[in-house]
## 1
Amino acid sequence: MERLELNGTRISPGVGVGSVFVALTHTKRRIPMRRIDAHDAEPSWKILTDARHAALKKLEGIQAATAKELGLQEAAIYGAQAAVLLDPEAAKDLRRWVMDELMAPESAIQALLDKFGKLFDSLEGGDMKSWAADLRDPWNSVLEELSEGDVEAARSGGPGSLVLVAEELTPTLVVSYPREKIAAIICSRGGRFSHGAVIARSYGIPTVTGLDAVDERARSGQACVVHGDSGVVVLNATAEEQESALTLSAERAHVRGVLASAAKEAGHTSDGTEVKIQVNIESPRDLDLFDPEIVNGVGLFRTEFAYMERPSFPSVDEQKEIYGAVLDRFPGKPVTFRTLDIGGDKSLRYFSTPEEANPALGWRGLRLSLKWQDLFLMQIQALRDCRAHGGVHIMLPMVTTVEEIRQAKDLLLTISGTEDLGVRFGVMIEVPAAAMALPDIVKEVDFVSVGTNDFTQYLFAVDRDNPWVADLYQPYHPANLRVLRYIARVCQKAGVPATVCGEMAGQRKGAFFLAGVGFQGLSMSPLFVPEIKALLRQVDIESLRETARQAARASTVKDALSILELSTAQAWQKVVESVGSHKT
């Protein structure tokens, strides 16, 4: 195939070089048509056949277990579903679509589902429509098997060898594949401030979206170069382009290496004012990617990813094992566990939530936990049982009112059986109403952390996944900066520690502003810790305070950014000069 250069939306900076791996992301949306090369037809047919057999085996196991527990009559439905997968006409269609029309396995199944739709959806009567659903469901199981096989295939590649290609940038996509294998990610869709984008940046994965139908145009195995800074992606890149990109990547790695060598020094400004630097992590596996000695603890452990990686809800003992492993790596330091935060684009495949017109404003975070209290009680029981390991901090997400905090606190009291909770108890401020109620909230908690990603979204009434209004998502607009300054002041007055665990904390201009208005700690991806520490060492606290004052007093986002970027550019130049003296 010919070299193809594409221009997309910059999501995460950096340079990635690797082989294309088209990821099957099974969602409720239609699977796009993807073609395969003729020499891949036979292997693709085998992949589909193996997935069908795996789905059949699972159905047979479910049928046997159901028959034992409920009887043969109740189990008969699973026998009928198995018969659907054994239908010779369906197998004939699938083979023709893969072998003759060169459809990818998942696209062939979508074609089969479309065929069922045309056959039954026009028929009247609820029974006929239910029959159509019964025909589709077993094939959805095959799609799930294909997805699992997709992940296993990715594990066979070498470190940094894959450029993941998908229809949409989602959190599940980013965390489903071995991180050390991923050189870059490119997608057709995905906003710069979506959850998937935030995680990609946190992991330091060069990422570009807005590449029209790239999941259909790309072919697994193609050489690919991704320039996350400019949004340029080259498919079928030449050897010279790959070599040049690898050289640029190595130069950046040298800068990171020099800064990392000084990262164990405590976070502080040039005049010695302490700024606690913590990390955001998703899994105990993250702990192998950095030295825990470089930070003051964990400002955000996203517990939902421990749930997302499992086939069912983890038990109390399984959760204790996960949480204890993290605590053991940070002896004498706080670890802040955010309770289960699913909803919106973060879902569990084994737990269905209601369809909502606007999930971002719906049933998620603490709202879900207070409704499904058994899940919440299991989690806080596991967390409290881990207190012997070290500094357990429990943090509630998506808090709206002080009444919710009291209700959650009462549930924790039922676990503790005493007024002594045995853990530090705090909240994330993500909802403007909670910011306005902060004088009351600080009386109920031990600490506060601001999730700037969602807070900005809700302050500006902007869905950050919606490209039509993405320009209004402005973390550095003076309106947002003023509210953040207010939050810091309320917490200072109450003597309640306040940190920021949102994306602004790991950005140069964000770290300068937040430290300047008085936040005591910044929690970020481990990737950004050395850079932020190096920058803070270049300025004194009074300079940061003055910069923050000017930015908050600006009238437009352009003016505020100009003030913050000038300050950080001057500090970064000093860092670069320092790094230059370490060249070998």
## 2
Amino acid sequence: MPVRGARRRGAGRRSAAALGSALALLAALSHPADAAAHDMLTIGITQFPATLNPDIDAMAAKSYVLGMAVRPFTVYDAGWRLDCLLCTRLPTIANGLAMPIALKDGKKGIDLTYTIRPDAKWGDGVPVTTDDVVFTYRVGRNPQSAVTAADLYRHITKIDVKDKHTFTLHLDKLTFDYAAIDDFVLLPAHLERAAFADPAQYRIRSRYNTDPTNPGLYDGPYRISQVATGSYIVLTRNPYWAGPPPHFRRITVRAIENTAALEANLLSSTIDMVAGELGPPLDEALAFERQHGSQFDMIYKPGLIFEHVDLNLARPALADRRVREALLLGSDRAAISQSLFAGRQPVADSFMSPLDSGYTKDIPHYRYDPVKAKALLEAAGWHAAGGGIRRNAAGQPLSFVLKTTAGDHTRELVEQVLQSEWRQIGVDIRIKNEPARVLFGDSLPHRDFDMAMYAWISAPDSVPRSIFDSTEIPDAANGYSGQNDTGFKSAEMDRLIEATETELDPAKRKALWAAMQRLYAIQLPSLPLYFRSNVFILPKWLKGVAPTGNQYPTTLWITDWQPQ
């Protein structure tokens, strides 16, 4: 399941006086310079989580914070290898913990046996057991629960419990990445069972929302001990954590909405570091390094980060593929990449990064061609009219609202470029930006948008079922849990997704990947912009931070971070 990588949000630039007051207040709350021994760490990010429930909403800010407080069963590490965090051993066919089975319909399924680490405990001392596994499965299977990874739970037909720590998942599909159950993140049954009494209200009544500092919600090295909504989250050591001891007594994660303010906080030592997963865009980071790079360690990490513009295909004009192609032809993406990022963020022609093994160049490529864009709009019935904005036969203007994460200076610049370029081909664009928790928690899942610019952050070779499969369109029936926000429907894409997931031969799978990318590039349910890099700005005394380049944040390995 890809994570929404809308990295920066905010409410515009503050005045110098207001910014100074804000800095003084933050410094009074927690100033890293006061911790001479570096037993405290303050991290700046540009987004605040819409929820802390690990199984609801796919949002980068939540993943970053919970990386220190929650242990998934499996994740991809910085070497893009699948690794166990909560389990003791990855099931494989070779070690006998993964057993392919023949199903009645002639298809293949698989039985996967996992063992929870026997020393795993929730932050209130209650052991993590298979009772939590069974409860989490119940939540995931219920269509009203709004769990994001609903597809995973649909394919788990049942769970056999061997004892308090060992269980077997029975899946009705054998996939090439069968051992990766990254999205099966446990919920504490002893706390969440009561909140799930009414599944339709679970999203609201979950203790991750109503009581987020309850220590029993967390089983990682840290527990969340303070939450100031929209401002900061404080994590302290989990005394029941049995893994490698974390080095910091307290970690504060501050959501600083504007990237200029983020840099000011860093230079004033109000924060120690900026998380690359939710930090400044490349252009701002390059400018920062030129002025202040000698004071910090800066890591540039290209990753599986796909910046794009989602198009709501329920809008009649956008449902016409000719209009979608015209919009792409009418945007000079190469010039945007060169002027803002010195060409270091390559233009995207599909959803799949060149860093992925399934990537192909053999797809349609759309170079800037406003003349062809105008011809396509004419053919689609949108004709030149007074004021420069095209209209159809009914006199309706070709006009859309474009949204992105508020406070992201680079995205706001890109919006303005697109607005200007699209006006030149006769398309009116009105900009209406929103805080990330609103855009991702409300507008996108409820499909309340015309166009939305943000990024997907994926795992290696992540099959895009959640964002392109026709069954993943969010609506009231699935609790708005799907991630196909464009409303894209394609029987061929559905077939390719299914075939790719179940193809075990890497060479044949690569051909399916290529077909999927070609279909995307032809249909254009969204407008690809570029593949992004993350920039980590770290204090020189902090070591052990290893960017992954994928959707799994560095904080999952927080116990490797240490002051030197």
## 3
Amino acid sequence: MMSNIKKMRKKLSKKDRVKILKKTGEITRKKRLKVMIFVILFIMTGLGFRIFWLDFIIGDMLKNRAYTQQTLERSFSPKRGTIYDATGKRILAVSASTQSVSVNPVNIKKEDKEKVAKKLSELFDLDYKKTLKKISKKTSIESIAKKVDSDKANELRAWLAGNSITTGVNIDVDTKRYYPYNTLASQIIGFCGSDNQGLMGIEAKYDEELKGKPGNIVKLTDAKGSNLDDEGENYIDAVDGNDLILTIDATIQGIVEKYLEEACIDNVCTDGGNIIVMNPQNGDILAMAGYPNYNLNDPYMPVLDEQKDNWDNMSKEEKTAIQQNMWRNKAISDSYEPGSTFKLVTASSALEEGITETDKAGEFNCGGGITIAGVRIKCWRYYRPHGAESLREALMNSCNPVFIALGQRLGVNKYYSYLRKFGLLQKTGIDLPGEGGSIFLKEEKVGPVELATISFGQRFEVTPIQMATAVSSIANGGKYVVPRVVKGIVNSQSGEVTYIDTKIKDTVLSEETSKNVLSMMESVVAEGTGKNAQVKGYAIGGKTGTSEDGVNTGKYVTSFVGVAPISDPQVVVLITLYNPTGEGGHQGGGVAAPVGGQILSEILPYLNVCQENKDEIDDIEEVCVPDITGLSIAEAEKILREISVELDSSEINEDDKEKIIIKEQIPVEGIKINRGNKILVKY
């Protein structure tokens, strides 16, 4: 084959061979040029696509990554909004300036890491190994300690200067939540976590209003993360949180907490208790107290001595159970059988429907009990029946058979329509977290016996706030008013106050029915089971209640609901005590009603409610509260001892009483209180 080709080439002339070679070379060059053009176009297309991808597809991501690599950013907390009581002057929660410590590990020299870790762990009581691990990381920033006091921050600054450590350790402005009155209104206010986030109560419910917007400190760094010395730090100011004005009056709250604690201790209430004081006209909660409560400045430690003494010996589960119980606001979250206080709802509904009258003599008859669908239901005084009674007398005597009869006259459907009007089949909508609801049988499942027990307040459950709100509907002329604990929000930037409107829902009763029920409630306190709630000089209305706390538990709930003054109701007070086991028994008239009288005897004068029966008040042992602000605890105790008034200073060591100066007091100067009462102070 090869020899044939060679023979053919020899036969071609020199001229033909040149032509063939030229033509072949030209073709080769063209091919080479085409390949080069194709390669160039391919490269240009690839570069264009790459530019498009980097710029338009992942450009923002790369910019953010570059910013992160080239900047060092630290955030600092804004000042959380202040919480004021109803006066707008007394501070219940405030953020004080403090400091936080963080480190930039890449900016701490290798030879300094161990001694920095040792100092930080000693100063802030931290684990050395964990602290060293943070300082040895290759991250840009690590948090070391928050809420640092000025003394420790200054000590750290001095140590850093003395050891010539100028970079890598940051001391920034921070805030710490402080509660001036410690335990006052603790279950309403709630507390914050280490990250300044509200965890309980108002702090949690209004967290978005209170928390503000964090600020930032930004500083440029080089590729290794080290500071660029010629570039300063850029501060982005924090936006402080808005302030809140509560409906809670610190003076009334203090009075209520004092008497609740006394009642729970004196009556040995094993499961505690709660009290609600509400303005029926606008739904303002003037006070809401639970026992036991807790210290807002130390929320994880119980306040009861017995629990504190055994704290270190308790299991984690036992500690958690105690904490949950003291944080829990049972006034809104837990339900109970209201007992005879619920007869006010039955009486109001029956009067509104026109199926009874207040003073029709002999309209009812108590024979010691009544048989419903084959079930005998006794009156509490079955051994000595009440006999012939009017509705007023039945309420004064708290006679079960009469209210069973009223329930039968109303019928299930009509009765349940009033339960809805009174707001007892749904939550009240109070602006606090964790509100619970009532427990009623479904309407279609209620038979004659179930209707009978509901009519006198047993075999169902409501929350205390539902009960207080229902009675407020009776007290204010028949309107359902939604309860609230916040009445105003103060803008931190402008100082402008936005007041929250009162929410009024349906009309529950006519004004005439309201007046008739209030008149009967006055008789209950004047001559009936609520005698122990009388307050000299004032016309008080009320109703007592006693019920079982669950079926066959052997426990009881005792309660009293009061309204004052009857002529123009300004206050509804509900006392609920769980399982009183003291010598005084568990009847509402003997245990809860006296507490209602004590509370009303102090808060009515404080609210400047005019006394109606001045001839009855001559023998009341009252004293005028002196001004003790500016005095030491020891000086104040001496002055108050002379007028038989106590100072609530149980948490203060004897050695400190000469040093601590009183800044505020509750009640304030000039308020009249009974001898033997306590004064709360802020220092």
## 4
Amino acid sequence: METYLDPTQFDLITPDGTITDLTRVDERTAEATVFIEGIAPTYVGFEIEPELVFFNVKSTLAQIGVDAISHSFELDKKAGSAEVHVTIRALGALAREMLKLLQVGASIGKLFAADKRRRVRNPDYLARMFGRSDRHGKPLLSLGGLHGSSDLILDKVEGRTVAYLGLQHGRLIYDDTATGFLPTIAKGLMAGVTMRDLLRLHQEWKPHLPRNVEEDEILLVRTLPLHIRTVFARVVDDLLSEGYRHTTASILQPDTQHSGDVYELYGSSKRELTDIPLEFYTLEPYREHVFFADRDQLQTCLEDDTTLFKAFETAPLPEDLRAAVFIVKGDQLINLKPEQWITRETRYHEFPGPLHGSRQAMMLERFIEQQPSYPFLKSIDVGGITSQGILLTRHFPSPLMKRLLLGDQIQTCLKGIYFQKPSSSSQDFFSHEDRALLHDLYKFAIPVYWVDPATKHILKYVERSYRDTGMFVPKESVDIFLRSTVFGIYGSNLLEGVFEQELRKLLSGILQMRDQVSHPLLNSDTPLALVTGGGPGAMEVGNRIAKELSILSCANIVDFRIADEPVVNEQRANPYVEAKMTYRLDRLVERQAEFYLDLPIFLTGGIGTDFEFTLEEVRRKVGATGATPIMLFGDAEYWKQKITSRFQCNLNAGTIRGSEWLSNCFYCIQTAEQGLRIYYDYFANKLPIGHRGPTYPDGFVKVGIDY
């Protein structure tokens, strides 16, 4: 697979070949064997019909009048080589002199695979490139400069796109010094040195000479410079005016600065030639300079969850094997095969630390290069991949890839990261560094998607405004998540309690209340979301009710697994979670701080619930969260045992002086009706809450008694 990423070779063309055997038949003709080596295994000529493969002579020779036509060849895919038998012809006196100087070892041309499947059929494929440039500001397709598209006429002829290039008046001829330059050209061919630019020094443009051709001569005509970066172009002999033929130097490559300004023709005709017809062949999908916005089929496929899940099923086994592939076309995604993935074995590294700077840097670089996504990202960075696309990777990329992922070229080319497992070592749980990378990717506008087997949905990472953390949310629910008022359920993972019926009534009543009030947190245009810890017990009750009521059901799930211990029951995530973020155990406190609830609801709970209560209390004390009502579901005596002694102790000690008002933020309720009354008064701005409100000696408000 990695051979596709070689920026030095295209798969429709071979490297240049050299003469290994040369027999001169007469002053105009020679027979030669050309040997080509270093052919990539991806060369298309290995698999198509032999009659579609032909020899392309160097344009330097063709402009002198030396043509070479292949009449047979043998390809060896295993050895990456080819042996081509060509007939060399000299057209004109200058060419006959050049033929005398050709020797064994001279580099004279290459093979081109005119694969019909790669022929451009729709003119729109090329037309959309007009006015666009590559990363260096060079036109992708233009005649005469970036804005010269009006001079390039595209038409559809016999099911293929043909461009007609108008010829400039006149023709090129050689000055008197050209013959003396031929030995230098011959030496350049032996050394593999490009001589075409030097040959131009011996050419003169004669604008008043006619553009017709006679027997035994070469006609050199000129068009405006044709810039092509996205396709191969080939002169179509069948569409030339009668009596004209083009030399086999008929291929215009996409890696030239401005090819196509000089064309070499022969034949016999009194009629002047007016234009040059070209047909086009697409590059490998990675190198087409195609924009993501132009890939309609790919975008349609990405909207279909089933297509993405099936694509990940093609990743090579075993499942802990790291694997990645870069996708640029819809049919590539649909027909993905195991051999198209780049794989790496999972290896864990012990880094020596910053005190060993040089060794640390070297090991980090090696680690990065061992990542399966590295070949794709590196190829984007150096210009080997020019089409925009998406990265499929079995595991979320290592945070050590951040420098590469956030590079300018990759940011331009990478239009999405799709992964299936957050970690090869911790499975479904993100590390602190992972979440930092998610945050940076989000800020750099590189979308990240979790192709999640647990929810069987594609989840997109999104962050709410002014918060440096986010969640993975179903694609269709992203707008709801970003605009929603967030309720939360805190409670025991061991007990569901007896609150389900009342909690359902409470949340249903809040949904109805949206049409009765107009508050920033609750109105007819604001959706609702509910967040829990994602586990069983009270958390499962909350997520289940939310999903039943079409409230976005979210969770911050922590990894409670302990080495050499049985999995504790908190580990089991409940099946009603739609949006989520995951945390490793060492970031338990950080996870708790990232609930960011607008309106918390507490059910019966243990030590974790006590911590969550204190955290919500502190949020309001320091002003991180406004004074909003917090519901305490259950018997007042239960909450008094949990809260009152601590509140009274702090009150009597004077350690909460000025913060006594916090007691008016907590409301103990037993029924949904009581909770709805508190919420209505709050949203109607009638609730005495906040630092100007009363203090309650129990540390909370007993609804029905105190209020």
